[in-house]
Structures are given as structure tokens and as C-alpha cells.
Design goal:
The chain has about 350 residues and is of the alpha+beta class. The protein is about 55% helix and about 15% strand. It has three domains: about 70 residues, no CATH class; about 120 residues, 2-Layer Sandwich (Tetrahydropterin Synthase, Chain A); about 110 residues. The relative contact order is 0.06.
Length: about 350
């Protein structure tokens, strides 16, 4: 063991003296490849070296690769000044109804840090190769088929484009995910048709706008009619409410008058009952011994200051059944007037 350590120590010192530094940037991860397997298994090491660090490795027997894990945008556009390539790079395809269209597409993606060793061993040696040979190839093929499912006029509807972009994102993630690529978004920018067809579409859009304007005017007129109708209904309801109020007022007054008359009738009835009761009691009292005297008194009071004439009532005298009393009274009055004043009784009585 001592011999081994004595031999290994110089070798280790020599190896450390020959090591070279390997670093990773702030957004990079590193992957080491072991070329000669003296102390470890040969091949890509299944280990991710953290960002922003420096490591020492022996030269020649180790290889070093880094992958940038920050978000990256693959821009495929018609404008050479903004796209990935200095030439027309937009997606060219046909809509489902057969019209040619060019569509600008942006694919936002990043590398999964934990799969960096897998990417190095099976997919690509670096970011550039991964972008050009894998992400770009897949991103230019599948979105054509997905966006080609739209009709020509549906490209004017942002919601439909966004829905297809979401489908494209999910499909790309399904294909690129196992390769260590995470697809964050798929965005659509400008789109363009054949010039003649573009003009026809624009003309149709103008016509549609006019139709929509007329529909809006019609709708506004209908709403105005509804408003006036509601105003009329409100006025009618107001009149009905006024009439109902007058009816209720009149009914209240009539009910009050009826109640008043009912109370008055009850009072009259009660008074009549009381008066009748008094008469009944008086009649009862008159049937007694004092009643006769009271009747005579009342007769005397009634006859007081009354002129009384005595007529003969014998058998040979006047017959009241055949005598005209009015004529008799008239005759007796004339005879009294013809008598001398000295023969009249004092007070004009005879």
C-alpha cells in the first residue's frame, strides 16, 4: 500500500499540474465527456455541471460542452431584417380551402438543464446544432399542417389563430420534449395571401363592414323604437295608476259615507226604539187609574181657547148623518156677524 501511494502521489501531482479550467456562464450548464476511462466509465458523463462555475479537467482525456438554457426565439419571418435568416423564411402552405398563404411564426423554447447529457449524447453537440437541425426542422413541418386546417377567412380571426398556435405548441412539445427541449410558446405575426386574392378579400371585408354598419343602424332604429314603446307603456301605466288612484279615492270616500250613513241609521233606529219604548211604557201607564185623569187633562189642554158649539141632538132635532156640517158652520158664522155687538159675549164669545 505504501509503495502504491508513493507511486500514485507523483502521478496525481503530475495530472493536477496538467489540468485545464473549464467554466460555465450564468445561464449555461456543462457536460463532460470522458475519452479514456482510467478512473471512470468512458463516454458522456451523466452529470450536469452548474451555471456560473469553473472546473479543472485533464486535457486530451476529457472533452467539454456547454448548453445555454436561457429562453430562445426561433423567428421564421418574411422580413430578412427580423428573422433568423437573411432571406425569406416564413411558412408557406395552403389553407384548407386551397389558397396560398405565408405566415410569420416565432417558436420560443429553452433547453431542459437536467437533460443536457442526453442532448449531447443523442441529439446535438451544442445549441447551434440543436437549433438548426432539430428545433427548426420540426418547427417548420408540423405547424404548416396545423395552421393549414384553417379556412382563408379564419386567419382574420385572432382567436382562431391563437387556438391553432396553442395546438402547435402542444404538438411541438410532444415531439421535442423527449429530446430535452421545452417549448414555451408558439406565436403568429403577419400573414399574407396572393395579391389578387388579397384584394378580393379586402373588398369583401369592406362590403361586410357596410353590411354590419347597416345592421347596426337597423339595430339602433329598433332600439329607438323599443325605447319609445317603453316610454308609451310608461305613460299608459301612469294614466292607469292615476285612474286607479281616483277609483280608490272615490271608493274610500264612498265607504266612509256609507259608514257614516250606517252609523246615522243605527242612531235613528236606536232613537226610534227608545221613543217607541217610551210610548209603550206611557201606554202601559195610561191603562192604569191615573191614565184616565191624565187623558182628561190632556183633552182639556187641547180644548183650551177653542170655540165650542152645541147642537141639538134630540130625536126630533138635527141628524148629523144627513146634516152638512160645513154649511152649518158657515151659516152660524154669518149669523154671529149679523148680531149687534152689545149682544156678543165679552171676548167675542157667545
Amino acid at each position: 500500500m505504501k509503495r502504491f501511494l508513493m507511486l500514485a502521489l507523483p502521478v496525481a501531482c503530475m495530472m493536477l499540474a496538467g489540468c485545464v479550467p473549464r467554466s460555465t456562464g450564468e445561464t449555461e450548464v456543462g457536460v463532460r465527456t470522458i475519452k479514456l476511462g482510467f478512473f471512470a466509465k468512458k463516454g458522456v458523463e451523466d452529470k450536469v455541471y452548474a451555471p456560473g462555475s469553473t472546473y479543472l479537467f485533464l486535457p486530451f482525456v476529457n472533452d467539454w460542452h456547454t448548453f445555454d438554457t436561457k429562453l430562445q426565439n426561433l423567428e421564421m419571418t418574411m422580413n430578412p431584417a427580423t428573422g433568423d435568416r437573411k432571406a425569406r423564411d416564413d411558412l408557406l402552405f395552403k389553407t384548407i380551402d386551397g389558397n396560398d398563404i405565408g405566415l410569420d411564426v416565432i417558436v420560443a423554447y429553452r433547453i431542459d438543464p437536467s437533460k443536457a447529457p442526453y442532448i449531447l449524447q443523442y441529439v446535438a453537440k451544442g445549441n447551434r446544432a440543436l437549433r438548426e437541425k432539430v428545433v427548426r426542422t420540426v418547427a417548420r413541418s408540423k405547424p404548416r399542417d396545423i395552421f393549414g386546417e384553417l379556412k382563408t377567412e379564419e386567419f382574420y380571426v385572432a382567436a382562431k389563430r391563437e387556438a391553432k398556435a396553442q395546438v402547435a405548441k402542444e404538438v411541438l412539445q410532444e415531439m421535442l420534449g423527449p429530446m430535452g427541449v421545452i417549448v414555451e410558446r408558439v406565436l403568429t405575426k403577419d400573414y399574407r395571401f396572393n395579391k389578387e386574392y388579397q384584394k378580393a378579400i379586402e373588398d369583401k371585408k369592406i362590403a361586410d363592414q357596410r353590411v354590419e354598419k347597416n345592421r347596426s343602424a337597423q339595430h339602433a332604429a329598433f332600439e329607438e323604437y323599443k325605447r319609445k314603446l317603453e316610454d308609451a307603456k310608461g305613460e299608459v301605466n301612469k294614466l292607469v295608476a292615476n285612474v286607479d288612484g281616483e277609483y280608490r279615492r272615490a271608493k274610500i270616500e264612498a265607504d266612509a259615507y256609507f259608514e257614516k250613513q250606517s252609523l246615522l241609521a243605527q242612531a235613528i233606529r236606536a232613537e226610534g226604539i227608545a221613543e217607541a219604548e217610551g210610548i209603550r211604557k206611557m201606554n202601559k201607564a195610561l191603562t192604569g187609574s191615573g191614565g184616565e185623569a191624565l187623558v182628561k187633562l190632556r183633552i182639556a189642554e187641547a180644548l183650551q181657547d177653542k170655540k165650542i158649539m152645541l147642537l141639538p141632538m134630540s130625536e126630533g132635532g138635527m141628524n148629523l148623518k144627513t146634516t152638512d156640517i160645513n154649511q152649518l158652520i158657515e151659516m152660524m158664522g154669518i149669523k154671529a156677524l149679523s148680531m149687534p155687538s152689545d149682544k156678543k159675549a165679552p171676548g167675542g164669545k157667545k
